[in-house]
Design a protein that fits this description.
about 525 residues; 2 domains; mainly alpha
Length: about 525
């Protein structure tokens, strides 16, 4: 069994190193200095192995750190309850959710396909050895953070230590349950495709995790210890079930074949997206336009794809109106809440950077543009000429800004209105700054996503993502926006800075598109 694990680990590492090298080859500056025979280059493989090791360490610790800090510790301040019991309460329910969603055993991955399907390795030895490794990683990854954050929350040390054991036991219990269910139904569970009932259970557990503390109810340490003992007993029984099960080959053949994760994963997922999108395209021949040139071409696209472009924005608008209606009623009826909201509106504007990031439809709209227009049009030389690229870009930017302005106007007006009815402000410019800064954020993200698309066009003709740089920029955008959550800055100064930055960024980005897009806006290979 140990030999099977070593072979599978080497296989996984080789795949990861090659993926790292491929990603490095896509980066604009680095790809120029890399040799053509880069996959044979020993120095590059050493770098790839170092990055692979760091990635493995990251999978052990980084995810657990973010999980414990953001999903549990950072939420303790929201609830005015004893921190130790609240921490334990949230941890318990989230662990159960994790057991349902991610046992590690039934997640179809490329290394499993290569090992068990291509290389025909012993499925049982491969599965059990890698599962043991995954459980060890889970325990090692959790224990430093349950101890650190647990002690900070005044949880006894012995409970901090058994928390990672509880996670491992829960995952084993659900793994054993799935194996038992397979014996009865002959249907293998795929963790990437959960059924509706499972999602309902997960939603209920989330409500229990965060909803009960909100109304002042949390489990105590005694209840957690009882749950731990039960999980320990069931976990030990589960080990026997996992070890005695002999149908792993059949399970993985079913999962991997159905998902086609490795050979046609991107093709299938993109095909699904295309099919869903095509259902929303209106091919009404009566659609026409009085405009000319690029404006005519773009207006027809917008009319035929109006459902795709505006459907989510309409839903967002309804939700936003509903939220502000409820907040208005609360503010008018509860003076204490009104004071809290008034004070928050004068210092928590940075939080709305992340809100506007989430609401902006830039990524979705540019994806629709590529799938339904550019992936075909970019095969024609005339479509890649500077005049055409810049002409279509200007029309698209107008549309994207207008689409995203709808929820932005509602939020900006709603915040200014709430500020007014909750007690107002000594500085009347705050009303204008509050409204205009939200509009500026919306315009910034509209420009940002479209400029990213034109400068880093990430798709190939099969609509597969092929740009590492695009993914890096997306990730950086997310982390910068997330950083602003919880930041307390005066609305006037932060709002003014946001407006100035958005204007400057937009001008610089438009200049870059004008100069660079004719060279960068092309199909990836």
């Amino acid at each position: 069994m140990f030999g099977a694990f070593i072979t599978s680990f080497k296989l996984k590492n080789t795949y990861r190193v090659n993926s790292v090298i491929y990603s490095l080859k896509q980066l604009p500056l680095i790809k120029r200095i890399l040799p053509e025979s880069l996959y044979k280059n020993k120095a590059l493989k050493i770098i790839g192995n170092i990055i692979s090791i760091l990635m493995e360490i990251g999978t052990i610790f980084l995810g657990k750190l973010l999980y414990v800090f953001f999903c549990i510790t950072s939420m303790l301040s929201v609830f005015k309850l004893e921190s130790a019991n609240t921490f334990i309460h949230i941890f318990l329910f989230l662990t159960i959710i994790g057991g349902i969603m991610n046992t590690y055993m039934f997640n179809p991955t490329k290394d499993k396909y290569y090992a068990m399907i291509i290389m025909n390795m012993d499925a049982k030895k491969y599965t059990i050895s890698n599962y043991i490794y995954s459980m060890i990683k889970t325990f090692i990854g959790f224990i430093p953070f349950t101890i650190i954050f647990g002690l900070l929350s005044k949880i006894p040390l012995y409970i901090c230590i058994i928390m990672p054991i509880f996670v491992v036991m829960v995952k084993m219990i659900f793994s054993a349950y799935v194996l038992i269910d397979y014996k009865k139904t002959k249907i293998a569970k795929n963790e990437n495709k959960l059924d509706k009932f499972t999602w309902i259970v997960i939603f209920i557990l989330l409500l229990l995790a965060y909803g009960l503390p909100y109304i002042g109810i949390v489990i105590n340490q005694t209840i957690f210890l009882i749950c731990f003992i039960i999980s320990l007993i069931l976990g030990i029984l589960s080990i026997k079930i996992i070890n005695s099960f002999d149908k792993y080959k059949q399970i993985y053949k079913q999962i991997l074949t159905n998902e086609n994760v490795y050979a046609t994963e991107n093709a299938k997922s993109n095909q699904t997206i295309k099919e869903n999108v095509s259902k929303q395209i209106e091919l009404d021949k009566s659609f026409t336009s009085n405009k000319h040139g690029f404006a005519y071409f773009h207006e027809l696209f917008v009319k035929r794809h109006s459902k795709i472009l505006t459907k989510s924005v309409k839903k967002q608008s309804v939700v936003i109106i509903g939220i502000f209606a409820v907040l208005t009623i609360i503010v008018l009826k509860n003076k204490d809440v009104a004071k809290i909201i008034n004070a928050s509106l004068l210092i928590y504007l940075p939080y709305f950077v992340f809100v506007m990031y989430i609401l902006n439809r830039g990524t979705y709209v540019t994806q629709a543009m590529f799938m339904n227009c550019d992936h075909s049009m970019l095969t024609y030389r005339i479509y890649r000429t500077p005049k055409v690229i810049l002409g279509v870009f200007k029309e698209r930017l107008k549309t994207l800004i207008l689409i995203n302005l709808i929820p932005a106007i509602l939020i900006g007006a709603g915040l200014a209105f709430l500020l007014c009815i909750s007690g107002g402000t000594m500085e009347n410019l705050n009303y204008i700054i509050l409204f205009v800064s939200i509009i500026a954020m919306s315009i910034f993200f509209s420009v940002h996503y479209l400029v990213m698309y034109y400068l880093l066009q990430p798709y190939n003709v099969n609509t597969e993502m092929k740009s590492s740089t695009y993914s890096v920029v997306q990730g950086l955008t997310y982390f910068v926006c997330y950083f602003f959550i919880g930041e307390k800055l005066p609305t006037f100064y932060f709002g003014l800075a946001t407006i100035i930055f958005s204007i400057a960024y937009s001008l610089v980005s438009l200049i870059l598109v004008y100069k660079k897009a004719p060279k960068t806006f092309k199909l990836r290979v």
